[in-house]
Design goal:
heterodimer; A: 324 residues; alpha/beta; seven-stranded parallel β-sheet; five-stranded parallel β-sheet; 9 helices; 27% strand; B: 247 residues; Rossmann fold; nine-stranded mixed β-sheet; 26% helix; binds flavin-adenine dinucleotide; binds adenosine monophosphate
Amino acid sequence: MSVLAYTENWDGKFKKLSYELVSYAKAIAENLNTETVVASIGAVEEEELKKLGNYGADKVVAAKDEKLKNLANQPYAKTLAQIAEKENATVLVFAHNFTGKAVAPRVSVKLKAGLAAGVTEPPSSYDPFIIKRKVFTNKAFANVKINSDKKILTLFQNSFEIKETENKASIEEFTPELTDADFRTEVKEVNKVTGKILLTDAEIVVSGGRGMKGPEKWENLEKLAEVLGAATACSRPVSDEGWRPHEEHVGQTGKIVAPNLYIALGISGAIQHLGGVSSSKTIVAINTDKDAPIFESADYGIVGDVHKVLPQLIEAIKEVKAEG
Amino acid sequence: MKILLCISNVPDTTTKIRFKDDNKEFDASGVQWIINPWDELALTRALELKEGSGGKIEKISVALVGDKSTEPTIRKALAIGADDAFRIDSEPKDSYYVANQLKELAKDFDIVMCGIESADYTSSAVGGMLSEMLEWPSVSSVSSLEIEGDEVKIRREIDGGQEVVSAELPFVAIVQKGIALEPRIPAMRGIMMARKKPLNVVEPIQADVLTAYESFELPPPKADVKLVDEENVKELVELLKNEAKAI
Ligand SMILES: Cc1cc2nc3c(=O)[nH]c(=O)nc-3n(C[C@H](O)[C@H](O)[C@H](O)COP(=O)(O)OP(=O)(O)OC[C@H]3O[C@@H](n4cnc5c(N)ncnc54)[C@H](O)[C@@H]3O)c2cc1C
Ligand SMILES: Nc1ncnc2c1ncn2[C@@H]1O[C@H](COP(=O)(O)O)[C@@H](O)[C@H]1O
């Protein structure tokens, strides 16, 4: 028996998210008194694979097939199902991101394993297997019982604390059995965002709404993001009107983020916006309207004009940072 | 060429979520039901493709697993422009069950479109499961889809960027933001015509259900916001540093 986590890599490197998944799988494995196995697909150096051991991987199984360089849902799912079978995995853990959403449901069918998507903590009970997951676009939770022998979970980002352990990981290569029929989609072009803090990775997100008043008014917002080492985001109307790029749109129909700190500048706090940000640990709102709904979800707030507050905020943060 | 849209019937996005019977069940009283926003955008894109195809795309169908109460949502999809509809007459018990119900129907189509997630169960699962059951390729987080001759050109979002992908038919497209700009609004003529379009009711097949909802919870109520005077921004920064430990 084992608990299997799939950790994807970005140009051969893992991220905090990957270690979160391993720590989470480890916590479940400890409860089940079994091994933690981590699967990796693509070209990742030995040294990088070994790092997964720092977070509790007992074994790392790496499928390095050149054909699996880019994400393709069908062969990835097949590879992971083969690893799961070989390792006799009873619980499989994926990230609740684009890749996890693409692959986990396919693996679920292959293994006939019930899927609980968007979980935030380990199961509350193992027999029966009951786990809490987000539903209604993150506005509520459901306690779901998985009845099948095998279970698949997709873990919501930033919801589980990373835990370091003694490194005992062994590394093993794996050659999946794949045929040409598994490769019926082809990646023609890859455009990666470079040089910027990715919204979904960021610990701090600074976000602007229509209350910013116009695309030319973003300078101070960007400055704030820079002093905080934050990523920038925006509300939907802001990206719809082309004030900011679409990648920045957060909310129910945009990206879902869960940083440590979310700063909402001139955002009213519509329910669809909150659906994408309400899992942030701390929310700060700056808005001229004291009755704006965002204040109901915020932890801290200033009722005031964002353009008057921003320069002071930037200075105050610089001072605090200088103090160390 | 034929395109199938899997649509789900969900509470309006502004719905205040509540539960009843000791948090065992969703409280649907007063809830407005709509086509899942992603599915509505997918339908809009499918119609655009059909209109631009010079007859190559013959038919756009919609399919929904749900009881009779979902028919207004299906009629709306017909009013927007779908040619016909299938309602598989069963409660959508879980994503595995729903995908199984859609499988038989889907086999007759060249492209099946699903949304990236439904606004109620939010599993992001049905599209992926369906493609695996059909043994078809799937392309997920699709933000644009063009058909050029026999080739389908897709833009998909990945974690940290975008890819351009081509796919062979048949395949499942799991769509998200960008697939169409605004959902199409039914015109009066569309609403009239929708009444005459076929809405086929299909008996469900026997299929397994792998998961069950035991109970629901709302997030714990938030403590009141701490307001800081706009003349005193420094205090906010200190709270963030010392109390929230967020910076
Ligand atoms: C199906 C559906 C899906 C949607 N999905 C999303 C989504 O994913 N993400 C999203 O964001 N929205 C989404 N929306 C839109 C959402 O309903 C709101 O319209 C939107 O979030 C409002 O954006 P906003 O807060 O920037 O603008 P507004 O609602 O116009 O708010 C602007 C705020 O700025 C304040 N303000 C004005 N001037 C200043 C100033 N000088 N200083 C400080 N504050 C000021 C105002 O008091 C106001 O509260 C969706 C809507 C629908 C119907
Ligand atoms: N009951 C249903 N009937 C038809 N299609 C559905 C149903 N439920 C979900 N879908 C499709 O699957 C997508 C993802 O839903 P989910 O897996 O529930 O998040 C939706 O956007 C629909 O395209």
